[in-house]
C-alpha cells in the first residue's frame, strides 16, 4: 500500500488538464455519431497552447485541432487526450503520427480506444517514437462520457436506454386508460433532449396504437448528455453550456422504429417515415401498404415466442451504425428487453402520484420468478426534475 502513490504517474495538474479535455469532449453532445466524443488539451510550460474536440464525423479529430492551434509550441508539450490517439487512416490521418511529427513529448490518455483499428496501436506508435505515454487518468469519467459508443464498439450492438415515466406505484395510466400527462412539463421537455441525442427510438405496436406518437425531437435547446449519468455536473452539462456560436446545435432526428410482428401498424400513423420490424408471419399486402406509407420493412426471424427477435433487431441496427437506442415503451417491449437482457440502462421519471390498482404497469414481459434473478441498476443515480424524481443508471443482470 505504501508503494502505491509512487507508481501513480499523475499530478494534480495532470488531473486538471484532463478534466478540461473531458469538458471539451463533452461539448459535442453526441453529434460525433458514429464516432466517440474526444477532447484534447496541449500544455507547454504550464500554459495551455492548444485545445480541440471532435465535433462531427469527417471533421478533424481532437488532437489535430489542438495541434493546429498550438503550431510550433507543440514541441516538447504534453497532450491530454480523453481517448487513445488513433493509429489508422480513416477519414482523417492518424493522430498518433501527428503528435509525433509535432514533437509532443508526453501523452496522457484517459483510456484505450476499443476500436479494432486502434486498440493499443496508437500508444505503441507513440512509445516507439520515444513519446512518454501515461494511461488511465480519470478513466471512469471517460467511460461515462462515451457510454453508448464504448458499448457499441465492444458488443456490436447499440446501447439500449429504457425510458419509463410512471406514478410512484409504477403505472403509466389510470384504470380507465388516462395517461396524459403523468410526468411534469420539465420531464417531458427533457425527453425531447434525450431523443435529440439518441440515434433511434424504439416502440412497440401497443404504444403506437394507444398514443400515435410522432417520436420527433422537438428540443429547442441542447441538453445535458443524455447517457452521461455519474459524470460531474460540469461535464454532463457541457453541451448545454457551450456557446451556440462555438458549436452550432443542428437538430438531429432519431430513426423511428416500431416492433410489430404481424405488421398491424396503421398506414396513417404519424411517426412515418419509420422502420417497421416484422416477422415472416406478416401478411405481404400489409407490408406493401406500409412501404407505400413511408415505412422501411425489416423482416426478421421470430424469437422463441414467435415475435420479432429483439436480439436480431439490435444486431441489424448495430450493422447500420446505430450507436444508441431509446426504448420508450410500452410495457411489453420494455419487459421483453429486460427478460432477454438487452436493456443496458434505464431512466425513470417518477411522478409523485398514486394511480392505484387497474392502471397499466410500465414494465410487463415475463418478469422474474425469484429475487435472485432480477435485473437491477448497478448504481442508481437520482435527481429532482420539476416535481418529479429521476432515477437512472446502468442495468446489470445476475
Ligand atoms: C482520435 N481522436 O478525436 C477521435 C478518434 O472515421 P474517422 O477517421 O474519423 O475515425 C473514427 C475512429 O477514430 C473512431 O472509431 C475512433 O476509434 C477514433 N476516434 N480518435 O484519436 C478523435 N474522434
Ligand atoms: Zn485521431
Automatic annotation (TrEMBL):
Binding site for NADP(+): 165, 181, 207, 211, 261, 330-336
Cofactor binding note of this UniProt entry: Binds 1 zinc ion.
EC number: 1.1.1.193, 3.5.4.26
InterPro entries in alphabetical order: APOBEC/CMP_deaminase_Zn-bd, CMP_dCMP_dom, Cytidine_deaminase-like, DHFR-like_dom_sf, Eubact_RibD, RibD_C, RibDG_C, Riboflavin_Biosynth_HTPR
Catalytic residues (positions): 63
Residues reported in the UniProt entry to bind substrate: 179, 195, 215, 218, 328
Gene3D superfamilies: Cytidine Deaminase, domain 2, Dihydrofolate Reductase, subunit A
Recorded metabolic or biological pathway in which this protein acts: Cofactor biosynthesis; riboflavin biosynthesis; 5-amino-6-(D-ribitylamino)uracil from GTP: step 3/4; Cofactor biosynthesis; riboflavin biosynthesis; 5-amino-6-(D-ribitylamino)uracil from GTP: step 2/4
Catalytic activity entry: 5-amino-6-(5-phospho-D-ribitylamino)uracil + NADP(+) = 5-amino-6-(5-phospho-D-ribosylamino)uracil + NADPH + H(+); 2,5-diamino-6-hydroxy-4-(5-phosphoribosylamino)-pyrimidine + H2O + H(+) = 5-amino-6-(5-phospho-D-ribosylamino)uracil + NH4(+)
GO molecular function, one term: diaminohydroxyphosphoribosylaminopyrimidine deaminase activity
Record NCBIfam families: eubact_ribD (TIGR00326), ribD_Cterm (TIGR00227)
PANTHER family: 2,5-DIAMINO-6-RIBOSYLAMINO-4(3H)-PYRIMIDINONE 5'-PHOSPHATE REDUCTASE, DIHYDROFOLATE REDUCTASE FAMILY PROTEIN (AFU_ORTHOLOGUE AFUA_8G06820)
Protein task: Converts 2,5-diamino-6-(ribosylamino)-4(3h)-pyrimidinone 5'-phosphate into 5-amino-6-(ribosylamino)-2,4(1h,3h)-pyrimidinedione 5'-phosphate.
Protein name: Riboflavin biosynthesis protein RibD
Originating gene: ribD
Amino acid at each position: 500500500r505504501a508503494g502505491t502513490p509512487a507508481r501513480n504517474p499523475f499530478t494534480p495538474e495532470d488531473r486538471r488538464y484532463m478534466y478540461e479535455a473531458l469538458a471539451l469532449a463533452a461539448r459535442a453532445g453526441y453529434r460525433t455519431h458514429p464516432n466517440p466524443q474526444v477532447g484534447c488539451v496541449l500544455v507547454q510550460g504550464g500554459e495551455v497552447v492548444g485545445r480541440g474536440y471532435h465535433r462531427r464525423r469527417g471533421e478533424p479529430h481532437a488532437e489535430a485541432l489542438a495541434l493546429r492551434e498550438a503550431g510550433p509550441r507543440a514541441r516538447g508539450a504534453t497532450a491530454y487526450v480523453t481517448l487513445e490517439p488513433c493509429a489508422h487512416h480513416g477519414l482523417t490521418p492518424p493522430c498518433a503520427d501527428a503528435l509525433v511529427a509535432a514533437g509532443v513529448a508526453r501523452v496522457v490518455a484517459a483510456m484505450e480506444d476499443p476500436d479494432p483499428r486502434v486498440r493499443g496501436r496508437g500508444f505503441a506508435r507513440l512509445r516507439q517514437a520515444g513519446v512518454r505515454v501515461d494511461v488511465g487518468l480519470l478513466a471512469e469519467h471517460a467511460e461515462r462520457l462515451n457510454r453508448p459508443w464504448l458499448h457499441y464498439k465492444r458488443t456490436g450492438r447499440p446501447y439500449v436506454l429504457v425510458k419509463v415515466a410512471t406514478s410512484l406505484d409504477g403505472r403509466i395510466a389510470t384504470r380507465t386508460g388516462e395517461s396524459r400527462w403523468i410526468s411534469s412539463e420539465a420531464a417531458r421537455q427533457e425527453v425531447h433532449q434525450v431523443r435529440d441525442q439518441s440515434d433511434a427510438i424504439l416502440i412497440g405496436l401497443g404504444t403506437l396504437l394507444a398514443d400515435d406518437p410522432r417520436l420527433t425531437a422537438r428540443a429547442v435547446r441542447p441538453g445535458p448528455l443524455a447517457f452521461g449519468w455519474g459524470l460531474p455536473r460540469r461535464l454532463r452539462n457541457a453541451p448545454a453550456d457551450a456557446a451556440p456560436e462555438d458549436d452550432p446545435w443542428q437538430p438531429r432526428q432519431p430513426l423511428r422504429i416500431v416492433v410489430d410482428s404481424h405488421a398491424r401498424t396503421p398506414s396513417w400513423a404519424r411517426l412515418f417515415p419509420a422502420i417497421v420490424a416484422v416477422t415472416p408471419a406478416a401478411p405481404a399486402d400489409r407490408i406493401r401498404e406500409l412501404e407505400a406509407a413511408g415505412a422501411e420493412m425489416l423482416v426478421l426471424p421470430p424469437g422463441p415466442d414467435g415475435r420479432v427477435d429483439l436480439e436480431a433487431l439490435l444486431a441489424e441496427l448495430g450493422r447500420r451504425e446505430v450507436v444508441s437506442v431509446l426504448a420508450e415503451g410500452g410495457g411489453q417491449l420494455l419487459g421483453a428487453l429486460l427478460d432477454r437482457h438487452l436493456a443496458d440502462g434505464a431512466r425513470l421519471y417518477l411522478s409523485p402520484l398514486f394511480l392505484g390498482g387497474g392502471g397499466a404497469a410500465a414494465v410487463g414481459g415475463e418478469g422474474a420468478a425469484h429475487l435472485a434473478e432480477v435485473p437491477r441498476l448497478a448504481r442508481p443515480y437520482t435527481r429532482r426534475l420539476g416535481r418529479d424524481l429521476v432515477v437512472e443508471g446502468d442495468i446489470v443482470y445476475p
